[in-house]
Every structure is written in structure tokens, then in C-alpha cells.
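Researcher: Let's run the pair from yesterday's discussion. Sequence first, then C-alpha cells, for each.
Model: Starting with the first of the pair.
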Amino acid sequence: QRAGFIDMRIPGAAGAAVSTAEDLLRWDRALAKNVVISAESRRRMLTPEKGNYGYGTMLGEMGAKKTDGHNGGIDGFVSLFQRFTSDGIAVVALANYEDLPVDLVMPGLTKLALGQPPDVAQVRPEIQLDDSV
């Protein structure tokens, strides 16, 4: 179904960015090599300032591995970018369907990126309803 119309001039940078997974990988590599910002700025970016939020990135952990990244969404699109800070691994989920729960897709993608088998979806039993329902 079509997403609701939104004039992308209104949200500014929140809706004006167009990217691909390959673009985001290039961006990640440029950040890691201090091409875009200095090593000091990158260190500050990855330092918690407000709870688990650094400068423009959400900081967390998966198991014993430190992660950083960000999600996004606007009418018609959702995204999630997660970097394993010290492993040089970045995982990206992009969708042009705004209701796709990328936070539920990401764990399987992450396990694949780490060389682990993803969890197998469980089959849910059919629920029998009375015809009156």
C-alpha cells in the first residue's frame, strides 16, 4: 500500500537522506579510518552523553561486544544501522515499508554477520475461534 504523502522539505535532513546499504558501509569505513572526523571526535561520538546516547549514535552491547548505531523512519521507510565497534562489522536493515519491524529482523542479520546461525522462527499454533467471534 502507498505510504502517506509527506513533503520531504518539511522534515529536512530526517527525510532528505537517500542511501543504500553499500553507501552506509562506505560511511562506516570512512568513520573507522578517521577520514570523516578526527580520532578524538570519533572517541567523543562513542562516549555516552545522555544515557546510552553518544553524539549521534546509540550505544549498547550485544553479549560482550560493544555496539553503536541508529535507527530511522519516516512515512514509507525504516532503517537500522548497527556497528560492532571493535570488530569492524556493520549490519544494515533498510526497508521501503514503514511497518516492517526492523528491530525484529536485525538479530537474525546480526547473527549471520557474526557467523552464527540465526534463530529459526517458531510456528505458532492455530487458534480456533467460535463462529460467533
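Model: Moving on to the second of the pair.
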Amino acid sequence: SDYFSDGQGNVRLLAVDETTNEGLLTGRVKYDYRTQGSSEWRELTAYAKQEDFIPLAIDADANALYVLKPLDGRRALYRIRLTETPSPELVASNPRVDVDDVVRLGRSKRVIGYTFAEDKRETVYFDPQIKALAAGLGRALPQLPIIRFDAISDDGNKFLIFAGSDSDPGRYYLFDKATKHLN
């Protein structure tokens, strides 16, 4: 019923909806995956409720699938390496609210962090360089503390950045990492 690619032209995840004998959907889905470079489908999950396993992204560089799964009554973020023996590892959870998405960057769409919303939307970055850059830009633009990375050049030196706040609709900037110039 659905396919997920790794962003590099390789279909890596297959979703199969369960149906009754009459052809009606049950609301349960199973997922099969492919290891890197393989065309053979392997079972990743048995049929389960859709809300119990929500695929978000496949990071080709990390050879991993990021999914939301329940943990202590909230949705938590897990990473599953798409290897011969995949096993989920907890990446992030929040005891008060659901983790709700991942943050991706670049042509390869590598996963660099995750988001959740309490009083305001929060982004937590895994990538230490992006985390430091976000903190520095937040200090440089104190009136626009919501920083979002929308694109990066292939050489990793130029970023298209959105900066805004709860009272300012925001604007886009081009940041040159080499010259530390923000336009």
C-alpha cells in the first residue's frame, strides 16, 4: 500500500495493509524492508495498528529507518538499522508530549534531529555541528529564536535558514559557514 525510499533512488520499505476476507481494511499494517543493495524483501514487523509503528524517514547515510512507536503512553523516536538483523534503539522520548517528527537536511535527506511541541515547537539536533550552528544563530538573531535549516549546499558551506518567532512570521537568510556571513 505504500513504499519508502532512502532518498537516493532505492526503495527500502514496503507497507502492506491488512484486509479482511471481504477486502475491507483492518487498520493494521505490516512492514517489509530491504538491506542496502538488495532486492529481496525481509519482514520488519508483523501486522500491527498503524499508530503503533509510524515510519518517518530512511537515512541512507546511516542505513537506518526512523519510526515513532509508543513508550509510556507517548510517541517516542526509534532508529532501526536496516541490516540483516534489525533491532529498534530508542533515540528520543519526552515524558510530557509526543515526539512528532524528524528533521532532515541536504540532498541525501540525512536525519539531523527531531521535533516535539510543548508550549512551543522545539527542535533537538543530533548533529553537533548543526546544534552549535543553531545556538550561534539564535544568539545572532535574538528576536527570531525559532531557527530552521531548510537547505544546504552540496559542499556544506551555505545554508538556507528560516528564522522567526511566535510574534514574527519570520524571514529567510543565507548563511555562509566559511565567511560566517548572514544575508
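Researcher: Give me one sentence on the second I can quote.
Model: The chain has a mean pLDDT of 94.
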